[in-house]
Amino acid sequence: MDNPDRQLVILHATDIHLAYDNVARLKEWLRAKKQRVDVVFLSGDIANVPVETAANGGPAEVFEEHHCHLKKIVEEFSSTCVKVYYLPGNHDVPAEFKTDASQAASDFPCNVHLRHTTIAPGLHLIGLGGSVPGYTIDGKHVWDGYPYTSDERMNSDLTKLLDPIFHCNSSPLKPSDAVLFMTHCGPDKCNTTFVREDPSNPILGGSPSLYKHLCDKELTGVYQAREILFRALSFLVSFIIQYTGMAYLGCRPTPW
Questions:
Q1: CA-CA distance, 16 to 247, in Å (whole number)?
Q2: Bridge pairing between strands 203-204 and 134-136
Q3: CA 155, CA 28: separation in Å to the nearest integer?
Q4: Nearest-angstrom CA–CA distance, 103 and 111
Q5: What is the dihedral of CA 110, 176, 186, 250, to 10 degrees?
Q6: For the chain, which terminus, N or C, has the lower number of CB atoms within 10 Å?
Q7: pLDDT of 243 over the 70 cut
Q8: Strand 84-86 and strand 110-111: pairing?
Q9: If we measure between CA atoms, which residue out of 17, 154, 19, 180 comes closest to residue 97?
Q10: Which of 123, 128, 174 is nearest to 9 (CA)?
């Protein structure tokens, strides 16, 4: 932000699944409203790779095609706002889960999977992409996670990501700083990861480890594919949320 006293406006879009038309509608909505956007968050499932294709490692041409689509969609948002932070969902290409140490956090668009960056003075962003498997309440496997085949594997990455920030003498955080945590997978025990298609045997689609980390650490907010959870927000931030049912369905933007 040029003016540190000005409210930061964040556009959050998710689960686009190659819906170019809806991206165009969103951009038109922003133009019609003359809405300023300072930062864009894209929290996964930008492309639409079948999970089983990603898990089985191919074919390569499918990954190449979807990677091109992902980059094009991210570029569409870059034309609205230079500062685009994104992370991969379970339907994005495997290459996006490989952290690129050569990319500086100031290079945009910025993939924040397993990364920490500062997006404004006193405001930090942490990212985790991917998902865990889903199970019915009686333990039946319903869908695969990617790239996390178990919650234990996600917990391993969460611990490596969060402990140096929250439990380290050399933490980059100051006492007055706020932290936003953008994920694709939601935490366990929230409405949108508790799927009630069959009320007698609902599906648990969230991460128990993520839920525990959120409870243990002072995170300002969570941006995930299907819900936003907020604790006390000490930083002046305004949100425009494009999804509330997922962007590929063409849901209308919602100012917050």
A1: 5
A2: antiparallel
A3: 40
A4: 9
A5: -60
A6: C
A7: no
A8: parallel
A9: 154
A10: 123
Regarding beta strands 228-230 and 134-136, do their DSSP bridges make them parallel or antiparallel, or are they unpaired? unpaired
Amino acid (1-letter code) at residue 163: D
Residue 153 neighbours by CB distance under 10 Å:
15
DSSP 72: H
Q: What does the DSSP 8-state code read for residue 103?
A: S
pTM of the model: 0.84
Query: In 3-state terms, what secondary structure has residue 4?
Result: coil
* DSSP state string for 181-203: EEESSPBTTSGGGEE-SSTTS-E
Beta bridge partners of 128: 183
In whole angstroms, give the CA distance from residue 206 to residue 208.
7
Which tens digits make up the pLDDT trace of 217-239? 655 444 443 343 333 233 344 55
CB of 86 closer than 8 Å to CB of 112: yes
**Closest Cα to residue 83, out of 20, 178, 8, 6?**
8
Reported as type and span, the H/E element at residue 180 is strand 178-183
Q: What is the pLDDT of residues 80-131, one digit of tens each?
A: 898 999 999 999 999 999 876 556 556 788 999 999 999 888 888 999 999 9
The SS3 assignment for 19 reads coil
How far are the Cα atoms of 188, 195, 218, 231 from residue 199, in angstroms, in the given order? 17, 8, 33, 29
Express each pLDDT in 129-158 by its tens digit: 999 999 998 889 988 999 999 999 999 999
